């Protein structure tokens, strides 16, 4: 249709910035998701934004509507014509809040970015009534639904569909059939005493709804996705013991500054060339000769102050780094991990199976590390005991002492490992529909970059205790060694070739406004805390035609007492294939709670005047394939 080529719609979460995704998988009375500030006695609701990108100015005369329907019902396609009276006579109004078609309440057009934003149910003015009537039959209880958004243009007596988008599928559940936890979002008094796991859904709800519900039946699922593998039972070791030992290992790797392991870094870089970079060369189709020219991954650390270190502590550090290589530093493990998560998404809907799938994933990593340790006559429990001793006695391990002590505190809810697993599984499940929307946007620049060399790095005058951890720097390698860039008129999309999860691309809107991104370039969810920091907030802009600027924030845990926060400032030059990176340290003015504060409030807490540069690096890239990057419609 003339003037609307490239027009795309997408639902966005704007009014509410809690850490829940825009849409839930199950609904009783709250929509589009249940906020942490949920009203226990009633229900909660927030608005939804529908954003049209690549929208010409005349789109201001068009109509945006949404409606609820089952996934079995027909969704109008672009170009379809709808009888205007069927829509206009059934628009939801204040005096008819159950009408089928829900109109936007206001709209805003950004001429610079050619983006139109429509808001629906602003301040819950019209509500989210859905007139579907179900029964107690299994067919109705397992029926999936969706919200469909349309952009329509008047043409004679018809409305022509200019663009369409759908939400992920969800189920609608009877409030009376739900358990107390799902009704009230808290456990009953009797549950708190009688059950070992209070706060767990015990109805046919989000996780344990009917055994027959399969992601594969959803139109948003990938048809060729293989069935989930059988869940193998774990051996006799208690899951809590495995979680604790793994938490101790990764606590050391995520909390200690990288210079603590400076003596192990040269060997780490050399082994990464074999375990990570050479297999990447195979994926890129490189010849043996070309693989030998691939740059050695750089782990920049500060030179540590000379101090006597016991042989036992050196051995412990070497062992810990070896175990890091066996997980994050192994290409085969990354591939296996991505495959395992892709096959396990159906378990997201069945609480019992979800728990077993998590335990299988936990056990696979636990036994992988124990197999490696068994070759030298030890096991992870033995290593964990040495870590505990070092945390209590070695000055270098002092930063982990509070963390280790906290591991003994009883878990109030799910374990951190379980929350991480579920956050990742949700992102993998939700990727199908979101990927199609991301890939539909026309690109101005597209290329795959691979590391050529690190031109230089330097640490600032900040305390060495503030340096990034070894796990953080290795994650930087996973994200930044080789990645694909897609630049649209309004956003930057990035995906690492060393990703550990099959998720959407990292997407950063280039408007210099505080926003939230879903996943890191390596596929890790921004919803899961990493290195005891809360992530997901960013600001991004396009400085000129060839230069992009990003700033990503890491907030302290609101449950702790720290006011220390971090930011990563990144500047990309599309013309020279160069990146300039700064790790910045600062403080927050007050507590930052990602669950209750909107992103603008969180970013206002960042004290720019106290910002100190911890690490600065300049990196040169080259094209992974020796040809010019794909550039369409060179912007004037």
List the helices and strands and how they pair.
Layout lengths: L7 E5 L13 E2 L20 E6 L9 E8 L10 E3 H5 L13 E2 L2 E5 L4 E6 L17 H4 L2 E12 L2 E9 L3 E3 L7 H5 L4 H6 L44 H17 L9 H19 L4 H5 L18 H17 L3 H14 L6 H24 L5 H14 L7 H6 L9 H25 L4 E15 L10 H11 L1 E6 L3 E6 L9 E4 L5 E2 L16 E2 L2 E8 L2 E10 L7 E10 L4 E10 L11 H6 L7 E12 L6 E2 L5
Helix pairs in contact: 5-10, 5-11, 8-11, 10-13
Summarize the structure.
This protein has helices spanning 84-88, 138-141, 180-184, 189-194, 239-255, 265-283, 288-292, 311-327, 331-344, 351-374, 380-393, 401-406, 416-440, 470-480, 599-604, and strands at residues 8-12, 26-27, 48-53, 63-70, 81-83, 102-103, 106-110, 115-120, 144-155, 158-166, 170-172, 445-459, 482-487, 491-496, 506-509, 515-516, 533-534, 537-544, 547-556, 564-573, 578-587, 612-623, 630-631. The protein is α+β, with helices and mostly antiparallel strands. Strands 12, 13, 14, 15, 16, 17, 18, 19, 20, 21, 22 and 23 form a 12-stranded antiparallel beta sheet that branches. Strands 2, 4, 5, 6, 9, 10 and 11 form a 7-stranded mixed beta sheet that branches.
